[in-house]
Amino acid sequence: MSEIKGFPFENHIYAPTKTNIGKTIIIFHGWGASTKNYNEFANYLSSQGFQVVVPEIVFHDSRNKLENHFRKEITQKYFWQVIFSSIDEATCLFRELKISEKDVILLGISMGGFIANGIYANAQEIAGLININGSGSFLLSEKIFRESDNRPQLSFEEIRTLTSYDPICKNKGVSPILLMHGEQDAVVSIKGQEDYYAYLTKESPTSDIAFLKYKDINHTISEEMTKDLIRWLEEHF
After folding, report:
1. Count: domains in the chain
2. What is the pLDDT of residues 151-198, one digit of tens each?
3. Secondary structure of residue 89 in the 3-state scheme
4. Which among 76, 92, 176, 206 is least surrounded, fewest beta carbons within 10 Å?
5. What is the pLDDT of residues 14-31, one digit of tens each?
6. Which runs of E-coded beta strand occur in the chain?
7. Are the CB atoms for 174 and 203 separated by under 8 Å?
């Protein structure tokens, strides 16, 4: 693994350890996690022939890390800020890595799934999207978060901001999409993925979009999910 340091990025890069497929998988991690948590996963994907990049995300690791991500008031204040900032940074990230959109597969887990989906919806040539236990339906997911926390309804301004980033209000894209979610996810409701999948397939049911649901799986990645992910990558790249 090597590192590229710059402003505002510090990217952890894993070179392919067998025949280079010519694609780069960018992994966006979950809320409160660290790039270090993905070392084994990234090495495994690089062993499949992909270059893998795990960028540090704002308010995590060396980028002004928050003191306690999981205090409710901290999560509520910064969660969407981190997602929006990461989406806005994508073009600069690609430029710094010297890779083109057509060679990038976006892979996001939990909060990272929101980020990957938001970047994909803004781009035109991304090679593929993998959203694991995240959501491509921002407005609906925030409404569910608020209902769970007994918070007030969204204001008009909050709705406007969320809608401006919401993948459901953006480009559907034409490259392969893999959505994966545990049916018992108590952190990020599967309803967000279901809503996004319904949007994607409403007018183009034959598009290359897969939605895999996993019975009895909460907010985690099971061995079965990992196997299905690798199988999907082998079939498409």
Report:
1. 1
2. 999 999 999 999 999 999 987 778 999 999 999 999 999 999 999 999
3. helix
4. 206
5. 999 888 899 999 999 999
6. 2-5, 10-14, 24-28, 51-55, 104-109, 128-132, 177-182, 209-214
7. no
| Residue-by-residue DSSP string for 170-196 | S---SS-EEEEEETT-SSS-THHHHHH
User: How far apart are the C-alpha atoms of 126 and 140, rounded to whole Å?
Assistant: 25
76-115 confidence digits (pLDDT tens): 999 999 999 999 999 999 999 999 999 999 999 999 999 9
Nearest-CA neighbor of 40 among 31, 24, 27, 57?
27
> Contact, 129 vs 177, CB < 8 A?
yes
Which residue do the tokens 């090679």 mark?
A: 127
* Residue 128 CB partners (closer than 8 Å, separation 6+): 105, 106, 175, 176, 177, 178, 236, 237
- Which CATH number does the domain housing residue 110 bear? 3.40.50.1820
Supply 104's token pair.
């990038």
3 state SS of 147: helix
Separation CA 15–CA 55 (nearest Å): 14
Residue 200 has pLDDT above 70, yes or no: yes
Name the nearest CA neighbour of 138 among 126, 123, 120, 124: 120
Give the residue numbers spanning the domain of 82: 2-236
Residue 163, C-beta contacts closer than 8 angstroms, at least 6 positions apart = 138, 139, 169
Return all residues near 70 (Cβ < 8 A) that are at least 6 apart.
Answer: 32
pTM of the model: 0.95
List, in sequence order, every beta strand (DSSP E) within 104-148.
Answer: 104-109, 128-132
